[in-house]
Each structure stands twice: as C-alpha cells, then as structure tokens.
Amino acid sequence: MEKQFFKKPAIYVGEVNINVTDLEKSLSFYRHIIGFSVLEQTDQKAVLTADGKTPLLTLEQPADVLPKAERTTGLFHFAILLPSRADLSSFLNHVAEAGARLGGSDHLVSEALYLNDPDGNGIEVYRDRPSQEWNWSAGQVAMSTDPLDVDSLLGESENKWDGLPEETVMGHIHLHVANLQSTETFYVDGLGFQIVTNYPGALFASTANYHHHIGLNIWNGENAPAPADNSAGLNWYSLVFPDEQSREEKIKKLESLGVNVKKENDTYIVKDPSENEIHMLLPE
C-alpha cells in the first residue's frame, strides 16, 4: 500500500458510517469475519478501527431502523485497503474457512474480494498493485473486471489471519447516484476530483493520481430515489482534506454551484446531488 494516496495533497475517504438493523449481529460479523477492533461502543453505536485509534467504520442502529432499500441511491460498497498481497491472501483463507459468500475480481490496478454484511451492505477488501504497474493514458487509468487468480492469491501467504493489519485504510467508497452529469459537476467542479476512468454507467474519481477514491454509478437506475434516513445503508462518509485552506476553497466552490454547506462544531457537512452525505474533515 502506497501512503501518498492517503495523505497531503490527496483528498481521500477517511471513515464510513452506516446503519444496521441488528448492532450485535453486525458487530460480530465485522469483528470476527472482517477483523475490525472496537474503539467505542454504546447500545446503539459501535466505532470500529484497525489500528486502535483511527475510526474507519461506524455502525449505528436507529430505534426505528428499516431494512436496506432496493434500487435507491446510497452505498454500493466501501472498500478496505490492506497493506499487501500476503494480507489479502490471509484474509481470503480466513473468510473461506468461515464459509462467507464472496466474489473476486482482478481490476488490473488491484485485486479485490467482495462480500456483504448481514444487512446487504457491500464490502470490498483489496490490495493495490504497485502504482508503477498501473497503465495511464491521457489522464485515464486502465481498469477492468477480470477473473481473480484465486489459486495464486491463496498461495501467497502462510500467515494465519489475525484481524485487520494496523496500516489498513478506507481505500475508497463506491456510491449509487441518480444522475452522472450532476454528480460529475459536484465532485469535479465542486470538490476538485478528477475523473480517471469512465465505465458503462459509472465514473471513477480520484486525487493525487490514485486509481480511484470514489466510484459513482447509476446501476440502480437513472433518477433512483434516496433511501429513508433510518434505513440500513449509508449514513455518511468523510473526505479528508490536506489543510484548512484547501477545504475552504472547496466549500466556496460548492457554494458557488448552489450547494448548501452546513457547519456542525468543527465539521462541514454537504450532500451530493443524490443525497449522499459527506463530512469534510481535516487530518487528525
């Protein structure tokens, strides 16, 4: 894992906050299958970490929670980036032994495993190939969805899975959106991302020449509605900006596009055109 994609001057995903219908059941899954540790916990909420200090995923159970809605905007998947191929190999051995249902793909830039949590929230666990192996042309990076070489990956490591390594980060988030054109305007003109891959019905956006920090698709249908606030799925995700000046510039850009930016304590909160909520943060 190359850290330059998750520090200044990059803008990157820091934390994802989701609703679940049964906190204890979800917590068991995220601890024992995915390998998170608990940073904080109450009756309705659990903050999860890989390094014992940095929140990566927060689970919340609203009092009147609804099951995850179909064919809406919101979370397609969040993606947990492991430091090495050996780590991904250990994880694959672990989830296979646990009997979890999963899929896999080779994206050229990365190797990825896919599974769902108990509520159907999508999760990707992946490792990046070295960035010098990525193929760029005219500002676009070559990505594909090829079969994963499972046998090669399984043979990569003899280490037993011992939970998420400390260096694990939230690599990217992939969202269902209602309209690609307004979405592109928001993320590119407003937040300063670059579109680095165009895919049928989807855009992939990044900063600092990463293959993507954000995926955006209309695969749930053009003009798909936003889910109810209390349904299982995405509550919000955070984008971490390099510094105060960078964040202020992006806030002014968004406001010039007619986007409402709210301030709560030290956090600026904004919603994209599909009602996906973003918390605009600074590095800790």
From TrEMBL:
<dbReference type="InterPro" id="IPR037523">
    <property type="entry name" value="VOC_core"/>
</dbReference>
<dbReference type="Pfam" id="PF00903">
    <property type="entry name" value="Glyoxalase"/>
</dbReference>
<feature type="domain" description="VOC">
    <location>
        <begin position="12"/>
        <end position="128"/>
    </location>
</feature>
<protein>
    <submittedName>
        <fullName>VOC family protein</fullName>
    </submittedName>
</protein>
<dbReference type="InterPro" id="IPR004360">
    <property type="entry name" value="Glyas_Fos-R_dOase_dom"/>
</dbReference>
<dbReference type="InterPro" id="IPR029068">
    <property type="entry name" value="Glyas_Bleomycin-R_OHBP_Dase"/>
</dbReference>
<feature type="domain" description="VOC">
    <location>
        <begin position="169"/>
        <end position="283"/>
    </location>
</feature>
